[in-house]
Amino acid sequence: MSPEERAFQEKVDAEIKIEPKNWMPEAYRKTLIRQISQHAHSEVVGMLPEGNWVTRAPTLKRKLQLMAKIQDEAGHGLYLYSAMETLGADRDEEIQKLHEGKAKYSSIFNYPTLNWADMGTVGWLVDGAAIVNQVVLQRTSYGPYSRAMIRICKEESFHQRQGYQILLDLMREGTAEQKAMVQDSINRFWWPSLMMFGPSDEHSPNSQQSMAWKIKRKSNDELRQMFIDQTVPQLEFLGCTAPDPDLKWNAERGHYDFGEIDWNEFYEVLKGNGPCNRERIATRKKAIDEGTWVRQAARAYAVKQQQKQQNAA
Amino acid sequence: MSPEERAFQEKVDAEIKIEPKNWMPEAYRKTLIRQISQHAHSEVVGMLPEGNWVTRAPTLKRKLQLMAKIQDEAGHGLYLYSAMETLGADRDEEIQKLHEGKAKYSSIFNYPTLNWADMGTVGWLVDGAAIVNQVVLQRTSYGPYSRAMIRICKEESFHQRQGYQILLDLMREGTAEQKAMVQDSINRFWWPSLMMFGPSDEHSPNSQQSMAWKIKRKSNDELRQMFIDQTVPQLEFLGCTAPDPDLKWNAERGHYDFGEIDWNEFYEVLKGNGPCNRERIATRKKAIDEGTWVRQAARAYAVKQQQKQQNAA
Amino acid sequence: MTQQPSQDQALQEYLLRLADSALILGQRLCELCGKAPAVEEEMALMNVALDLVGQARNWYDYAAELEGGQRDADALAYRRDAHEFRNLLLVEQPNGDYAVTMARQFFYDAWHYFTLQALVNAPDERVAGIAAKALKEVTYHLRRSSEWMKRLGDGTEESHQRMEVAVESLWRFTGEMLTADAVEQHLATAGLAPDAEQLAADWQGLVNSVLTEATLSLPPADAWMQQGGKTGRHTEHLGFILAEMQFLQRAYPDAKIW
Amino acid sequence: MTQQPSQDQALQEYLLRLADSALILGQRLCELCGKAPAVEEEMALMNVALDLVGQARNWYDYAAELEGGQRDADALAYRRDAHEFRNLLLVEQPNGDYAVTMARQFFYDAWHYFTLQALVNAPDERVAGIAAKALKEVTYHLRRSSEWMKRLGDGTEESHQRMEVAVESLWRFTGEMLTADAVEQHLATAGLAPDAEQLAADWQGLVNSVLTEATLSLPPADAWMQQGGKTGRHTEHLGFILAEMQFLQRAYPDAKIW
């Protein structure tokens, strides 16, 4: 370990935040760029399954809530791209990688939203799982990322409660058809939500180094268990069930036991074979490609304005 | 008059059909090409206001009827383009003129179809007005056009009865909302249907020569009066009203009197300012432009197949 | 006193016009979710849409009260068919490219801004209150869309060309905003709707100045104008917008909550 | 005898699958009205769509009877939400360019043809009768779409490229057609559904030969296949299709006639 590296690791160990201008190992920088850009892409791609229902939201109140949530997500995307840029990465290049299939985003967004209750379930389970990850990331060693996480977590928690409330209202006062929507939605999103924590620890390659750097602070399996433990009581309170016959309280462990995840599905979705991978990337790519002339015009106009000001000065 | 011209006119006067290989005056040919291509364009553009509801037809029966009607209209377009081609005109060129705004089509299709009852009204009033024109054209002097008209008229009459039946069913067994749709639809289509017969005789420039050539066989005003006289009893039988306070039976004339047509609107629509002129032409132009590669491929394939057959022979 | 009910009816009708236009434009912007030219634009478009749908809800609430409470805001938004909608034809036009989206927004924002500016002084507290809140939001909308008119008009050759086409193609829907019918004339005399002449002058003044700065051609003053939205005679687009927007309320009529 | 009701239920379910696929593809083709690349294609597309919607009605009529008559064909078509629809994922995919429209049609027609060929011999007269009538129509559909595969595949460089993309992008929706679930296996043993292995072999044989003649690449045999349409788990497209298609029935639930 070089002296710089040692100093860096000591700061990390002492829970002192690394800031953009500080020296950092190249691998730390690269890992962070990858992780933050994935996170940013996830916020933006994550707008699509909600955009799918925003034109069909059933009441003005729900429509406004969903619109506000989508707006927040665009905002999260922007903070995160900014945090990523403090590491010297270029937003356009990273987005390019996304569109070429070289960068990832959360696989959960490759599942379709098929009924209105999905707008509740996505808030409750998907944002819920994200928060479990993100709460830990608030203490991540890289300053800008940590601060972005603190702000994002607050809004995500709000979304999660709102999502749960949608489901609760439907289960309490909804018709039989509406209740069936909720259960159907949970059936579809349960397993994919559990997959959001990534492969089990034994198959998670980069984890050890990330733990030492405090980019990652808990293992995938730990986080998954935390999520399940907090979610099952909420599920029961809703009066719904999970599509997992093995799910039950284990008094000895003090945790819920649960069935084996279908890792085959997990890896297929990762490979691009999820129900919506192609559509999601195609939509994003089309937006950015068709927006090229708009961004060019904005730049050209800015340059002209600058020149005018210089000429006037 | 040259001997050829005289011979031609004598045939026309004797009600002998002019056939493609016969000599004909250049002006006759041009007038016919213009008239038949307009008619063909009208069939094709006329699919659009119906296409607007075919995806929303309210029952399987009505959907099937509307689809069959649209299919017939495409067929009419094809017959008419063929009849036009017998005069030496090129279909692609004539369509090009349409897309450039240099060729006309029936102005009625520049009005939007805004409720389901319009599918009845278009059949009853619009096809009804077309038939009044076309019945006379069955006896037009140009053989291929006359024969196309005979076939087309038969199908149009079927469409007209079907359209009237839609309205009759709604008025007899429909809810108050459905009946209101019918009256609203008639209110919107009444005057535009009367305009389908063109300007009043005093302002109709080409009529005299066309009458002599028996391309046209009755004046605009005569046809309009025929249409009104046959339509008003049907309107009354429906239990609906026309948006014309001056409409009433004139026992002395043996015809219905009716109010003054808003010729300002007529000429504005003709100039391109109708509610849908831009949309109709844009839709058609887009279809043909975006279909260019398809038609090219079909031609290229046909050539390849021909070559293969020649090589094999 | 015999005039009172008729003024209430006129106001109810006018509130629906305000609400429907805001809702339908908000809906059109919702269609762009995930499809904007940059993430910043995603956020801005959704922000504008959110303001508009929020304003629509406020107007609907008041319209529903004036009606006597048989229907609530959701019933007004979700249970009327196209011929009952009173929105401007402009706002139901498709998103097109970003030049069309922005030209539509700008023409509407300019009208919206001057309309709200008048309504802020309405002798009806409720109207004045809703307008005051909306005016703050719309001031930002107008600034933003004016900026985009200039960016695209005076940006690149391509953007200029696209914006020329957009302005020309939407122009025919702007006349409707500036022509008062009996309902609006009646309300204007009571200070419950803007004075039509003043509104038209303000709108034209602003539009002329922004288009000029954006190096864009001014469409001819005597261009033919489409009419009908305010009295429920729409273009063919609205029916499709409503079919999508209203689906759940229509498909599950027994649902009491969502 | 205790098996009887279960077979009726299976048949009912299967009839809905046949009907829904035909209806939804017919609906997609209706969307193309006025937008086809030539007038001849306008006529042909509407003709195919007409056949398909007609077939759907026949299957719905029988399904409704088996159900006991609580719902008629229109109720089945217009009053079920997306999760109740049983159509193949393939047919709900958007029209795309004409290569996509035709590849979708060809993959479906090939499946449809061999399916109907088996159903013609069904021991249920009603099924056999509907299938026989449909088979005549679908024989033409298949000939037509096969021709277009060749024209576009072996036409110009551009058309070839577009068709390659179309085939590749739709391929993942073809596996569902060729995999029998319990319902179909159960019916196959009773001769009320095609034998799955035979169907798959016939389909693959024909598709291989047409793609080859069309100079198109054959997608890999082990490609990942999407599933779900036959059990009501659709892509995000279906909801929008239904919102439009069902609007009038949903918006005017009291109407007894149309």
From TrEMBL, chains C, D:
GO CC entries: cytosol
Superkingdom to which the source organism belongs: Bacteria
BP terms from Gene Ontology: phenylacetate catabolic process
Protein name: Ring-1,2-phenylacetyl-CoA epoxidase subunit PaaC
Pfam families assigned: PaaA_PaaC
InterPro entries: Aromatic_CoA_ox/epox (IPR052703), Ferritin-like (IPR012347), Ferritin-like_SF (IPR009078), PaaA_PaaC (IPR007814), PaaC (IPR011882)
